[in-house]
Write a structure and sequence with these properties.
Helix content is about 30%, strand content about 25%. By secondary structure, the protein is an alpha/beta fold. Helix 1 (about 5-15) runs antiparallel to helix 5 (about 195-210) and helix 3 crosses helix 4. It starts with a strand and ends with a strand.
Length: about 220
């Protein structure tokens, strides 16, 4: 069984945007196809960064409340689609997850553990169910249409800040697994979405004990 400390998972999620910073576990393979990025680490740990371009936001429907002073709207009920398991997901997040699934299939790899941030945390929830694998997601949007639990729902741990708007969208959707909300003493607004500020709340939680220290799913 793979068990991760929350702080170690957060450090990897932060480093996922520049994989050259990852020393251990070592990066074995990386996917960079179109607007989809993913890294496979030693031990079959799947690491999923979030959006790194405006095109990602548009293509996969993970949009902030404002971008360039322009208000953007997330599609809700009209953007749902059933996955292979029959669960109805947000269409953009599902499409992103399928790209990663097909890559892993070509590599003949089944992940043992999944860690993701933002858009990567949306995919981590979907792929956790696909592979029945434990997952940790930071700043996780909501990919699941049903408000009810589904099989393997509980294998996800989601760490979200109360001042981060992304975990609140799409409003008509729901999180997988256990979503832990942390209210930081330092309110950051939309800047709260960065992994740096998620690492900060894990350090801050040494005092409050809202978050688990480790996650095995």
């Amino acid at each position: 069984m793979t068990i991760y400390k929350l702080k170690d998972a957060a450090t990897l999620a932060d480093a996922s945007y520049k994989a050259g910073r990852i020393v251990s576990p070592r990066v074995i393979k990386s996917l960079d196809h179109g607007d989809v990025q993913a890294h496979l680490l030693e031990g079959n740990i799947l690491l999923l960064p979030g959006s790194n371009s405006v095109r990602d936001y548009v293509k996969f429907n993970l949009r902030p409340l404002r971008l360039g002073n322009q208000r953007l709207v997330l599609k809700d009920a009209t953007a749902s689609e059933k996955g292979a398991s029959g669960t109805k997901w947000h269409q953009g997040f599902l499409r992103y997850s399928i790209e990663i699934f097909e890559w892993l299939k070509r590599k003949n790899v089944t992940p043992n553990y999944i860690i993701g941030h933002s858009l990567g945390a949306a995919a981590a929830q979907i792929l956790s169910k696909t592979y029945n694998a434990p997952a940790i997601g930071f700043a996780a949007p909501r990919p699941k249409w049903s408000k009810h639990g589904v099989v393997q729902d509980g294998r996800c741990l989601l760490v979200n800040r109360t001042d981060d708007p992304v975990p609140k969208v799409p409003a008509a959707y729901h999180h997988m697994g256990q979503a832990k909300l942390f209210e930081s003493v330092k309110h950051k607004g939309f800047l709260a979405h960065s992994m740096m500020h998620y690492i900060n709340i894990i350090d801050e939680d040494d005092q409050f004990k809202v978050l688990p220290e480790t996650w095995a799913g």
